[in-house]
């Protein structure tokens, strides 16, 4: 994932921008960047944040930056913001999203006169640079953003800094949020609403799907109104959203509490305590405890001073090792205990299996597992939520391959996604057996949607049910 933040202020924007971006650090692990515009024109800095926090890398930059307009990002992949000079003017650009037809759009740019793109170390084209090239094919920035929204397959939210103000655009189906905050000194635009709370801003409004606005220190001007169809990512609430953030009027922490409530209402086990896998599983576990009456406990604590983010570094084997090293047991709360463990999800199955193993090694008698979402059946094709290169990275698909062989039809997959089917029960039992859970019960999709509180037509649930953008 990635996250961005922008400020248009009557005063210096630098500190607000610095802290606003820093509050997105849970969304990315590789690059951080800031760009501001002031009396000296554009200033821009990008740093590698793989081994140290955003905050420490940019402390020197903020002493040198000056300006009242600025944008920045935390990125899990490409370097940004980029500085661009084109016939529509000079601008800085940062994006959040995923382009599934990147090669097609790159070739289209070449056909229309583009001579080259800078190649990243991965050998790929920087998606943000491609977006800038697409925008520059049109006669204005607004027309260019509209064009990008029309031609990109996937999702693409955009923030563009000019000398006059900031363009903010939410992706066509609103898969990720863009939220406007206001205070007397000006406005901000952000992925995470919690990023502006300690900076003195108040919620102004959420942009609608595909909406484009132009933000200056004194006003918000709508350049394109919102579309009437939304498919916001459900994982915002279940996993990668920050607990203090609110999207579409629904707070993440409150949703996770409701999620735990509904998990408890369908359950019949009586463990000694219920625990959440830090950090995103904790609120789910509190909700479960509140309804069930089973005490909430913390039988292991996450060591955060040097490993604050669970999905760093980029190597899967290193991530697994760090995930194991970060959790330190409280053996007095584990030995001879029956534990119920809630995690936000099971993706590959490796980390939760190792967590269960270390609980047994610490003396646990039973480990019951309750993921806070349904089984993940399909790799995300709209956001860079997962690094999975193949759907066989998903534990569900490996189990289905074992049970069915290589040729699995869409109809069979639908059965495995149905919590009332025999195939679903067989899949869950095999996952339970492999990971040595005492019992395993996933959150149902209908309950998860109820936990969020939006109509299913407004939610993307593709990774669980494989349903794309069909009309409801």
Automatic annotation (TrEMBL):
Binds 1 [4Fe-4S] cluster per subunit. Binds 1 Mg(2+) ion per subunit. Mg(2+) binds at residues 280, 343-344. It comes from the Bacteria. Residues 1-218 form the Glutamine amidotransferase type-2 domain. Its cofactor is [4Fe-4S] cluster; Mg(2+). Its EC number is 2.4.2.14. InterPro entries: GATase_2_dom, Ntn_hydrolases_N, PRTase-like, PRTase_dom, PurF. It catalyses: 5-phospho-beta-D-ribosylamine + L-glutamate + diphosphate = 5-phospho-alpha-D-ribose 1-diphosphate + L-glutamine + H2O. Keywords: Glutamine amidotransferase, Glycosyltransferase, Iron, Iron-sulfur, Magnesium, Metal-binding, Purine biosynthesis, Transferase. CDD domains: PRTases_typeI (cd06223). Pathway: Purine metabolism; IMP biosynthesis via de novo pathway; N(1)-(5-phospho-D-ribosyl)glycinamide from 5-phospho-alpha-D-ribose 1-diphosphate: step 1/2. GO terms for molecular function: amidophosphoribosyltransferase activity; iron-sulfur cluster binding; metal ion binding. [4Fe-4S] cluster binds at residues 233, 380, 460, 463. Pfam families: GATase_7. GO terms for biological process: purine nucleobase biosynthetic process; purine nucleotide biosynthetic process. In the C-terminal section; belongs to the purine/pyrimidine phosphoribosyltransferase family. This is Amidophosphoribosyltransferase. It comes from Thomasclavelia ramosa.
């Amino acid at each position: 994932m990635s996250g961005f933040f922008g400020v248009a202020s009557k005063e210096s924007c630098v500190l607000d921008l610095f802290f606003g971006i820093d509050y997105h650090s849970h969304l990315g692990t590789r690059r951080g960047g800031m760009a501001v515009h002031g009396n000296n024109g554009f200033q821009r800095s990008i740093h590698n944040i793989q081994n140290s926090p955003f905050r420490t890398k940019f402390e020197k930059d903020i002493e040198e930056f000056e300006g009242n307009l600025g944008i920045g990002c935390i990125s899990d992949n490409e370097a940004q913001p980029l500085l661009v000079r084109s016939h529509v003017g000079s601008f800085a650009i940062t994006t959040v999203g995923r382009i599934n037809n990147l090669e097609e759009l790159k070739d289209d740019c070449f056909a229309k006169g583009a001579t080259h793109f800078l190649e990243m170390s991965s050998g790929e084209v920087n998606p943000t640079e491609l977006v800038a090239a697409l925008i520059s094919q049109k006669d204005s920035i607004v027309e260019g953003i509209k064009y990008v929204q029309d031609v990109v397959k996937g999702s693409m939210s955009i923030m563009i800094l000019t000398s006059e103000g900031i363009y903010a655009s939410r992706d066509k189906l609103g898969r990720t949020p863009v939220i406007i905050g206001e205070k007397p000194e000006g406005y901000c635009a952000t992925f995470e609403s919690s990023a502006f709370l300690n900076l003195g801003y108040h919620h102004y409004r959420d942009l609608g799907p595909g909406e484009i606005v132009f933000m200056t220190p004194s006003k918000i001007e709508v350049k394109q109104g919102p579309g009437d169809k939304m498919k916001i990512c459900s994982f915002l609430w279940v996993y990668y959203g920050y607990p203090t953030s609110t999207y579409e009027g629904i707070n993440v922490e409150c949703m996770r509490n409701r999620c735990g409530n509904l998990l408890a209402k369908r359950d019949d086990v009586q463990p000694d305590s219920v625990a959440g896998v830090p950090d995103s599983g904790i609120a789910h576990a509190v909700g479960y405890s509140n309804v069930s009456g089973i005490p909430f406990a913390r039988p292991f604590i996450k060591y955060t001073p040097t490993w604050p983010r669970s999905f760093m570094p980029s190597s899967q084997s290193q991530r697994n090792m760090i995930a194991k090293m970060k959790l330190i047991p409280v053996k007095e709360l584990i030995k001879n205990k029956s534990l119920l463990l809630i995690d936000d999800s099971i993706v590959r199955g490796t980390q939760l299996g190792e967590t269960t193993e270390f609980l047994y090694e610490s003396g646990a008698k039973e480990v019951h597992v309750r993921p806070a979402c349904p089984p993940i059946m399909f790799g995300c094709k709209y956001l860079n939520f997962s690094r999975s290169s193949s759907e066989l990275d998903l534990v569900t698909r490996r189990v289905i391959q074992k049970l069915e062989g290589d040729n699995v039809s869409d109809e069979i997959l639908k059965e495995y996604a149905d919590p009332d089917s025999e195939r679903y029960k067989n899949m869950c039992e095999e996952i339970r057996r492999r990971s040595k859970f005492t019992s395993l019960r996933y959150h149902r999709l209908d309950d998860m949607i109820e936990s969020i509180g939006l109509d299913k037509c407004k939610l993307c649930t593709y990774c669980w049910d494989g349903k794309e953008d069909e009309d409801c």
